[in-house]
Write a structure and sequence with these properties.
This is KIND domain-containing protein. By secondary structure, the chain is mostly helical. It is built from 8 helices and 5 strands; from the N terminus they run βααββααααααββ.
Length: 197
């Protein structure tokens, strides 16, 4: 992933409000896809990174790297033999709670949030089952496109930024740096700008 990722924590801070119901469901679906390949550990909104194409990156960390609400009850009780999938489901539940699920009026989201963060491990769905439950609730077909749109709303669209570049304004010009990182000599005339090496 060559782009600059933005954390869910930053997205909520910049927007000044939580995610809407479809965005939360898209986050659950895409998060579940990622969590099937994520190492054991816990995570919080600052460890959920969104990329330009709607891809998510979830960085699992040790429990001392997150605040206590992201540590599931079984870990707080000192249980050394925990189910990593159940831990991930719990953390994802707390992440979506932070991201706006607690304020949502959706009964479906409320139900998902409750089952994700329930103290009894056997009652929590598996990561795969949770992803399917969320897919059944989402009305749009492409959750990653919705997440990509969230990224663009916060970080902007790089292609659009390049199209908006006005060379005459003195803004940074692509390819204006030489091989050694220094600025190339620019020759200005009325019809065009050319670079002289």
């Amino acid at each position: 992933m060559d782009d600059v990722g933005v954390s869910l924590l930053e997205i909520v801070e910049v927007r000044g409000c939580g995610l809407n119901d479809d965005e939360l469901l898209a986050l659950i679906i895409t998060g579940c896809e990622v969590l099937t390949k994520t190492p054991a550990g816990v995570f919080s909104p600052e460890h959920v990174i969104l990329h330009t194409d709607g891809e998510l990156e979830i960085k699992s960390v040790s429990r001392d790297k997150v605040s206590s609400e992201y540590v599931p009850p079984e870990m707080k009780e000192g249980n050394a033999d925990v189910d990593p999938g159940a831990v991930h489901v719990y953390c994802l539940g707390e992440v979506i709670r932070f991201a706006g699920a607690a304020e949502s009026g959706s009964a479906d989201l409320f139900s998902l949030l409750n089952v994700m963060t329930v103290a009894h491990i056997a009652t929590r769905p598996s990561v795969t089952r949770l992803g399917q439950m969320a897919k059944n609730k989402l009305t749009i077909q492409n959750p990653k496109a919705l997440l990509a749109e969230m990224y663009i709303l916060v970080m902007g669209d790089e292609a659009e930024d390049i199209d908006d570049l006005d060379i005459s304004s003195g803004e940074y010009m692509p390819n204006s740096l030489g091989e050694n990182g220094g600025l190339r000599n620019l020759k200005w005339d009325e019809t065009e700008t050319t670079m002289v090496s």
